[in-house]
Amino acid sequence: MVRKALLSLLALTPVVVLAHYAFGVGGTLIFVLSALALTPLAYVIGEATEHVAEHTGPGIGGFLNASLGNAPELIIALFAIHEGLPDVVRGSITGSVASTLLLVLGCAWIAGGDGRFDARSLQTQAFLIIGATALFLVPSIPSWHGDPNRHGLFLLTLPVAGALLLVYLVQTIRSLRAHADAHVAEAREDAWSMKRGIVILCLATLGTALVSESLVGSIDEFTKSFGLSEFFVAVVIVAIVGNAAEHGGAIVVARRGHAHLAAEIAISSATQVAVFVAPVIALLSVFVGDGLALSFRPIEIVALAGAALIVAIAVRDGRAVRREGVALVAAYVALAVAFGFTGDR
């Protein structure tokens, strides 16, 4: 049912592309249509990656899922940098981590009820986000006085991005080595062929790029129409849209009684954004803009570290409990309200 609904929304992609590029339509309508169109595209990227992974084995498959699962967020961020919207990019990174940790995990626990999971693995990832946030303080603290986008802060960002990517690469290499000698299992009967999976993955990524440009280009008019700050739109709306497929996947999996898998999806996704997506965006920013400094506001630093700490405490007993899920969602709502009262810099 959910899958059919998502696939039906793919019809919005050509509608958005034609309206934006052929007829020059912009504003609130394009922003809303683009946001709706990105959800099924993210889902298709995830599904195509899973089918390709059927032919590559668990190690490479896991690497593909980790690397390509966040493609929509990465593409949206690069277009935002090109349009000169660095606060939108940083806000979407913050919102992506916070919403995945609190909102998605909370909704998954509410939907799935009580369950068990590996507390050590999830706590390690939560503390990894806290460690990444500590590194973000290097370019962030100087940005609280003066221009947060000055070139000197970008130079401070480079070693931070390098350190985070090193951590990510070490973990990835360790995972690939663990599966190096593993036998590549026979692909299941209903799996797509490798060629079909790659073609669909490329088409979905291209569609995401085109729709992302229309979304970013309409942010300014959308914010003015509703009297919202660009920061709020980025940290709440854009962040949720970029992670929509993963959000839905975690909740559906939890509903089926797989609390451990739902928690892994939610927390792993947040960790990947903090340790992989954020530094990659910063490094690639020099090719599409003036260079993005990972100079987060105090409220963003508090949101990143606070959300990770709350989740680390929530998973310490290795049990998913509905009332804790409610508490996580409530924490996210409180955070979103705080974001609403925070204007643009």
Automatic annotation (TrEMBL):
A Pfam family it matches: Na_Ca_ex
Location(s), subcellular: Endomembrane system
GO terms for MF: calcium:proton antiporter activity
Gene3D superfamilies found in the cross-reference section: NCX, central ion-binding region
Residue ranges annotated for the Sodium/calcium exchanger membrane region domain, each copy included: 28-173, 198-339
GO cellular component, one term: endomembrane system
Keyword terms, alphabetized: Calcium, Calcium transport, Ion transport, Membrane, Transmembrane, Transmembrane helix, Transport
Topology within the bilayer: Multi-pass membrane protein
Membrane-spanning intervals of the chain: 29-48, 60-81, 93-112, 124-145, 151-170, 198-219, 231-253, 265-288, 294-314, 326-343
BP GO annotations: intracellular calcium ion homeostasis
NCBIfam families attached to this UniProt entry: cax
PANTHER family from the UniProt entry: VACUOLAR CALCIUM ION TRANSPORTER
UniProt protein name: Unannotated protein
Organism annotation: freshwater metagenome
